[in-house]
Amino acid sequence: MNAQFPDPQVHEIEDPLLRVRDLAIDYGTNTVFGSKAKRVVEGVSFDIGRGETLGLVGESGSGKSTTGRAILRLLPVADGVVEVEGVDISSYGKRTPLGYRKQVQAVFQDPSMSLNPRQPVSYALTAALARHGIGDRRERDRLTREAFDQVGLQRAHLERYPTELSGGQQQRVAIARALVLKPKLVVCDEAVSALDLSTQSQIINLLADLQQETGMSYLFIAHDLGIVRHISDRIAVMRSGHLVELADSDRLFDQPHHPYTKRLLSATPADRPEGREERRHTRRAYAEAHAAGQVPMP
Amino acid sequence: MLKLIGSRLLLVVPQLIIVSSLVFLMVYLMPGSPAAAILGEAGSNPEAIARVERELGLDQPFFVRLGSWFGAALTGDLGNSLISGRPVADQILMRLPATLSLVGGGLLVAMIIGISLGVLAGTHARTGIDRGVTAFSSLMQAIPEFWLGLILIIVFVNGLGIAPVVAWVPPEINLAAWAGGLVLPSLALGAGASALIARQTRTAVAEALSSKYADTLTAAGVPRGRIIWVYALKNAMVPVLASSALAVSILIGTSLVMERVFGFPGIGTLLINSVAGKDFSVVQGAVLFVAIIIIIVNLVVDILYGVLNPKARPQ
Amino acid sequence: MSQTAPPKTQFLSVPAEAESKTSVGSRAVRRFFRQPTAVLALAWVAIVAIAAVFAPFLAPFDPLQTNYTPEGVLQGPNAEHWLGTDDAGRDVLSRIIFGARIALMVGLGSVTVAMLIGVPIGLLLGYRGGWYDRIGTRFIDIFDALPGMLVAFAVIAILGRELYAIVFAVGAIFIMNFARMARAITLAERGKLYVDAAKVSGITERAIIFRQILPNLIGPLVIQGAILTGAAIIIESMLSFVGIGLQSSVPSWGGLLGLAAAQIGVQPFLAIPPGVVIVLTVLSFNLVGDGINDTLAGDKRKRIKPVRRVRSERAPLAPVAPAAPFPAADQAGAAAVAAPSAAPAGAAPRLEIRGLHVGLSTPSGQTPLVRDVSLTIGRGEIVGLLGESGSGKSMLARAILGLLPPGIGISGGSIRLDGEDIAGLGEKDLRDIRGVRLAAVFQDPMASLSPVHTIGKQVMEPLRVHFKMNKKQAQERAVELLTRVGVAHAETRLKDYPHQFSGGMAQRVAIAIALASKPDIIIADEATSALDVTTQAQVLDLLLDLRDELGLSILLITHGLGVAAEACDRVAVMYAGEIVEVAEVGELFEAPKHPYTAALLSANPTRSDAGDKLPTIPGVVPLAGQWPVGCHFASRCQFAIDACTVAAIPMVDGSRCIRTTELTLEVAQ
């Protein structure tokens, strides 16, 4: 990271739900002579408040999904602090307590991949409930139906297999699976990226409605700035494993501070033709400036 | 290139150690004492057995015996036959040409038939030709090679009399007779493996032709023939080559039996006789020898794989 | 088997409503029994099984009863001994019937042994990964390299020639096979999102392996099991044949062949019956395995009927009848062409598609995938084709390029390139068109380049084909092209392979290949969709620059509103196989005429204030084959009236909606 643009100030929040400080994550590559660790995320700090949505944006390889997976404890934390409700998750060691699993849930990108093709879709919910010792069989079935109602699915969908549902319906199941455990934080990792535009808006509305009903917080990871702006209270921008800017959504879009954020915004198609010649001009000027070595980034 | 060969050679060393240990362990586990096999009639006398075992070093602990086996094997000394007393290595080397000729012939047949049928079916995917090739390869995979050998003998030698009497003739004696004698055995041996190769080639070629890069080249106006023979085939050969080590291994295994059908004096015959006669040192030597041949074949395939597939080259 | 995704054929695999009411299991069984060869094979396996179980009742003679009289031995087939007798005068038919017992016991027994040992090893290696996996896989490789026969010899040498020893010897050959398979599948499944999702739910590792991963293994295991049962029968026969299998008195198929080999000069017939029985049995096990495979995965080799264009539907050369619906569709377009592009007034459009229909041939007739599409692209014009997945936009692109997958074809209409109809031309005629006049860039840049050839070779290929350049000339031109599309240090990069390029750079190389033969028009099928935003902007800018510089016409196929808005002169919106609206880009984004366009624009989150509810379109896109009569969008449209669903809606004044003139559509700005 270049020294000109130090990592952004952490917006300290009082009594945050999630507190991340100086998070570092390594990818181990094993060779004949032992494992070599490559640092893919470093010095990432942010808070998420209760009922808040924090957008996490960046291009591929920026480390945004990696950060999400570390919070979900699907990847080990190499260094730093990740606290949920004031408890540092690195204190858990190898096993993850069920209590943590109940608090932090996830919705992943590809809905067809995030459901087991060999099982009826309701299995994912009843299995999770059973594992957490919630209710007896009848109670679990009731809770599952309730969650299906909440995400706008019908009873008839309970016994379907993933391939028998559309992409949007599959993603609703995935949301129901997260919802049924009544989590406090849901990590949405590109949760709407694989969906068509018309389905996307349905799912975004659903996520917003559910947040209002339950007061959960979202860590909303996505590469699409338009969606992130719509759904997030605050947005963090990542690049090459570092957080480059964190700000309120409007501020970030209207007055981006970091050059990379500016560049990202200018590259994002504006979804309307007006002013496109100017935008093209800006991009060209940028490319020329870059070629002349005046801009510090590729 | 040198880096590629070097890195692959490094992997061969542990393979050789493991395989030869396994071979040693196998003989170690065999029931009955080799001493009894040597002594024959006199093998009922425990004192005689103990004496012979001492002479052979069989009373030593396992690891001492393993060590001396390694030491000897490294210098090419595989011991002597318990029955004939002749050096095992000599016996194997004497029988090597017949086995290698048979396997080589089978491999040639398998490759030629397999790749041409596979390309034919792959380029005509989902047509009658494709189904025909599939049916043919299904049938070929179901026919035991040794039975095919018997049928070929019945039809061509006994029945029609058009083929020469099949027999092993060393190439240094009469090259034409050597080649002629190899035709039927190679056909019989290669048929099954050709079905395997045909299936794989078919899938790989069909996949390559329906790939995005084939689309890109087609859209750029590159003729289909060039796409098939230059682009699809080279891509298709990557998975085919990867599995050809398996095909060779199957060929070698089958050739051990095929020798019997055509009366070839190869390693297979030696091995089968030794298993039946409990000639442990010959079994040990022959198994090790075949395993080494396979390791060498794998090495060659591995290197070719690296040549073909740039992603498999060491960085 | 990894397979590159075929062009979206989602509609092929979705079961019809009626079918989804029955259970998945019974559907699979029914699908299996619809395959005649698989059923025949299963019948033969059943016959062999019955012969094995009831051998004492079915066999005409005691298989061990000898008859050493000169007339008794080596008889050919006769009324008493249907298949003759062997060298000890034993009845061959009876020995074959009893031999079925050995064949099945060794076949099924050895496969069971191999599965019981191999599958847990594979599961462990695949799920644990890391060092377990690396060392374990090395071992599997070494074991697997040993010929099966050698392993069997060794095991028999240790354990002897009893039945259990043979079962174990043959099973030992397959252990690594199952281990390798279980490992590969587990490894693939373990990386899938549903395993992560289960972990996040708190499900334990063991439950994930047994409840989530194992079910995915069952199909492949059954298939492999069936095929290896056949292989085991062959191996057992080989062992008996060379005389180190079961004792020779035990009636086994291979043992019979061993005797036959010795008597081949005297009684060749002896070799026929056991061999035929082995072949039939092994073939049947293989075919049953293939049948299960096809049931689970769909038959990838099924013959496909080609789609033929209906000749009478070939569009007339010029719009003769003013009442014809399609010329009207393009009036807006034709007017717009003149404005933004520098095309000389009155020149024929570069590409003109009229009333194009594309269909998929199915056993029950033809399913339309693209319906009545008319579109023109002017010289130097960039036309966007905007649509969600399943809209048929990529099928349209492939139809233009003559790259439709097997079974899908142009069933009507015309595609005129500079006035010449190229719809459904053969390979030979297309050769002079593709590359030289018409080229394409596809979505996934990495897949668009052959991984085992250098990029230099691939860029030079069209140059050598079309311009007959020698190597040196082609090399120089390739460097020029690569430099033009923004590949730095082109001379040195010619020798590089695609995996050494980033996605954006690989897409630039693909564009260089498309540009090599100086085409007039480029079809860019989601060419920027897989790229990051900053890279996407660069590639879009490159296309815009090339248009300005070379006067290229571009058909830009995309699902992104932003891409369409940023780069296109005109935009056609596709929905469920039809173009529903064509308009100049500013007009389309500001004042859409078709309710679908309006709804699509409104659903875009950038058009709504943060926190507001997004306008949505209820329901889902109807799949091909389930399109309604009349307007395809009617069921999701808030303005639909009864008249919308009566008959096909024609394209009028750039919109395929009967209420265009009466509706005022509002789009959030």
Structure description:
The complex is a heterotrimer of chains A (298), B (315) and C (669). Chain A is 36% helix and 23% strand. Chain A has 298 residues and is α/β, with parallel strands linked by helices. In chain A, strands 6-7-8-3-9-10 form a 6-stranded mixed beta sheet, sandwiched between helices. In chain A, strands 2-1-4-5 form a 4-stranded antiparallel beta sheet, covered by helices on one side. In chain A, strand 9 and strand 10 form a beta hairpin. By secondary structure, chain B is mainly α. Chain B starts with a helix and ends in a 7-residue tail after the last helix. Helix content of chain B is 78%, strand content 0%. In chain C, helix 3 packs across helix 5, helix 10 runs parallel beside helix 11 and helix 17 packs parallel to helix 20. Chain C is an alpha/beta fold. In chain C, a hairpin with a 2-residue loop joins strand 4 and strand 5. The N terminus of chain C is likely disordered. Chain C contains 24 helices and 10 strands. Chains A and C meet through helix 2, strand 6, helix 3, helix 5 and helix 6 of A and helix 6, helix 9, helix 10, helix 21 and helix 22 of C.
Low-pLDDT windows of residues of chain A:
1-7
Query: Biggest interface, and residues per chain?
Result: B-C, 77 and 88 residues
Strand line-up across the major sheet of chain A: 6-7-8-3-9-10
Look at the helices and sheets of chain B and give the structural class: mainly alpha
The counted number of beta strands of chain A is 10
DSSP helix fraction of chain B: over 70%
How far apart are the first and last residues' alpha carbons of chain A, in Å? 13 Å
Structural class, from helix and strand content of chain A? alpha/beta
Query: Percent range for helical residues of chain A?
Result: 25-40%
Largest sheet of chain B: none
The strand count of chain B comes to 0
Overall pLDDT metric of chain A: 88
Rg of chain B over CA atoms, rounded to whole Å, is 24 Å
Q: Strand share of the residues of chain A?
A: 15-25%
Distance, first to last CA of chain B: 11 Å
Question: What are the secondary-structure elements of chain A, in order, as H or E?
Answer: EEEHEEHEHHHEHEHEEHHH
Globally, the shape of chain A reads globular
The number of helical segments of chain B is: 12
Whole-angstrom Rg of chain A: 20 Å
Helix/strand order of chain B, N-terminal first: HHHHHHHHHHHH
Give a quick account of the main beta sheet of chain A: strands, pairing sense, barrel closure: 6 strands, mixed
